[in-house]
Specification:
Shape: globular
CATH architecture of the largest domain: 2-Layer Sandwich
Number of helices: 16
Number of strands: 18
Strand order of the largest sheet: 5-4-3-6-7
Structural class: alpha/beta
CATH superfamily of the largest domain: Aconitase, domain 3
Distance between the termini: 53 Å
Radius of gyration: 21 Å
Helix content: 25-40%
CATH class of the largest domain: Alpha Beta
Strand content: 15-25%
Mean pLDDT: 97
CATH topology of the largest domain: Aconitase, domain 3
Low-confidence stretches: none
Length: 464
């Protein structure tokens, strides 16, 4: 029987099939952070059980951490309690923990791949929806709830219904100044925020194959923003080159065996998908969102839709979103003032994102009325930024490099966008209040963010 890569990985990890119920799925890697794990650890304590496989569970603090002065105690009480609780739980259960001050600390979905904790063919879970990021490495990765975090801690297994399979194929070549973030924002706009509900996506096509690993992670990261359970990309030579030499990757003869095994992880010809969507890369341009869900996106040169074709609840939701954002139907966003710019998050906090942003602002100056938060996704990314001299170029242009963490992706730390202010953000969600109560988020890629940072307004990077 012809199988997709998703079938091959999923079926090889099924411990038990429950008739007319979910599968019991074995989990290779369990990633935990400070927000969704405290109740799970408390649950296994109440039951008197420990962590089933401590060597396969990795903990990192990221959501609540400040991005300045990480050597000092965390000022926000709730954030400090959550980080301290994770530290105690990790120590008590003998887990590998990347806490503040650890050179490997960072955003969990950046740290996993760069250390080789994530590897092709694995099943990976985390109490965080953007666990789908790891699918870029040729793995099945998805977010889970707190009760499922407890289940995985206690058994290294999880009960999950097998999702339907969807193929998204993007063929052709992306244009100049069009990034992986633009590609995925385009997909979300085309397929809507709920258009892939119930599916696990395989991304394929020449445009996907041309992306570097960082770009592939950006695409898979936002699979969840289309309602999908996750997304993955078949591993290839770029994947193997990326993981070779990583700390937790196989070494020597084991590496050669692993690569041979990973090379088999691709969908068979004529494998069946439940749904297929094909797109042309030449239709993708720099993108930006205008509403309060990631599906409300458009080409940066377009006008906001009028919404005339909408009815009922869709019409109400559309009007409510524009009212919150302070926009009008049919409005041109290009030229609209911006007060904040955020470069970072598990979507765009990797070295390629900082290289692109830095290259764009080189020789220019940050707009004096823009507050820019440039937050590396990990300590490793921060060190590479300095090793390549990107920090000096950024400083010359008026920018400050902050310390690793989730930062302004979500308002769980000190980096909050004030009410009513507009932020061009390279993160993944633009829900009401996502970056701070009353904040207004415009999702974009690193080049559109760079253009906003130097002009103080929404701007097309191709025109600069």
């Amino acid at each position: 029987m012809k199988q997709t890569i998703f079938d091959k990985i999923w079926d090889s990890h099924v411990v038990k099939r429950i008739e007319e119920g979910p599968d019991v799925l074995y989990i290779d890697r369990h990633l935990v952070h400070e927000v969704t794990s405290p109740q799970a650890f408390a649950g296994i304590d109440r039951r008197g059980v420990g962590v089933a496989r401590p060597g396969q569970t990795f903990a990192v603090c990221d959501h609540n951490v400040p991005t300045l002065n990480q050597h000092l105690p965390i000022q926000e009480e709730q954030s400090r309690i959550q980080v301290d609780t994770l530290s105690r739980n990790a120590t008590r259960h003998k887990l590998t923990y990347f806490g503040l001050g650890n050179p490997k600390q960072g955003v969990v979905h950046v740290v996993g791949p760069e250390l080789g904790i994530t590897l092709p063919g694995m099943t990976i879970v985390c109490g965080d929806s953007h666990t789908s990021t790891h699918g870029a490495c040729g793995s099945i990765a998805f977010g889970i709830g707190t009760s499922e975090v407890e289940m995985t801690l206690a058994s290294q297994c999880i009960m999950q219904p097998k999702p339907q399979k969807m193929l998204i194929e993007i063929n052709g070549q992306l244009g100049k100044y069009v990034t992986a973030k633009d590609l995925v924002l385009y997909l979300v706009a085309q397929l809507t925020a709920g258009g892939c509900t119930g599916y696990f996506i395989e991304y394929a096509g020449s445009a996907i194959r041309s992306l570097d690993m960082e770009g592939r992670m950006t695409v898979c990261n936002m699979s969840i923003e289309m309602g999908a359970r996750g997304g993955l990309i078949a591993p290839d030579e770029k994947t193997f080159a990326y993981f070779e030499g990583r700390e937790y990757a196989p070494k020597g003869a084991e590496w050669e065996k692993a690569v041979a095994r990973w090379a088999m992880l691709k969908s068979d010809e004529d494998a069946t998908f439940d749904k297929t969507c094909v797109f042309d890369a030449s239709d993708i341009e720099p993108m930006i969102t205008y509403g309060t869900n990631p599906g409300m996106g458009m080409k940066i040169t377009d006008h906001i839709p009028t919404g005339e074709e909408l009815n009922g609840t869709d019409k109400i939701t559309f009007n409510k979103a524009l009212q919150y954002m302070g926009f009008q139907p049919g409005q041109l966003l290009a030229g609209h003032p911006v007060q904040y710019v955020f470069l970072g998050s598990c979507t765009n906090g990797r070295i390629e994102d900082f290289r692109a942003f830095t290259d764009f602002v080189k020789g220019r100056q940050k707009h004096p009325e823009v507050v820019a938060w440039l937050v590396p996704g990990s300590g490793s990314v921060a060190r590479q930024i300095r090793a390549e001299g990107l920090d000096r170029t950024l400083e010359a242009a008026g920018f400050e490099l902050r310390q690793p963490g989730c930062s302004a992706c979500l308002a769980m730390n000190e980096d909050k966008v004030p009410a009513g202010k507009y932020a061009v953000s390279t993160s993944n969600r633009n829900f009401e209040g996502r970056q701070g109560p009353g904040s207004r988020t415009l999702l974009a890629g690193p080049l559109v963010a760079a253009a906003a940072a130097v002009t103080g307004k929404v701007a097309d990077p191709r025109e600069l």
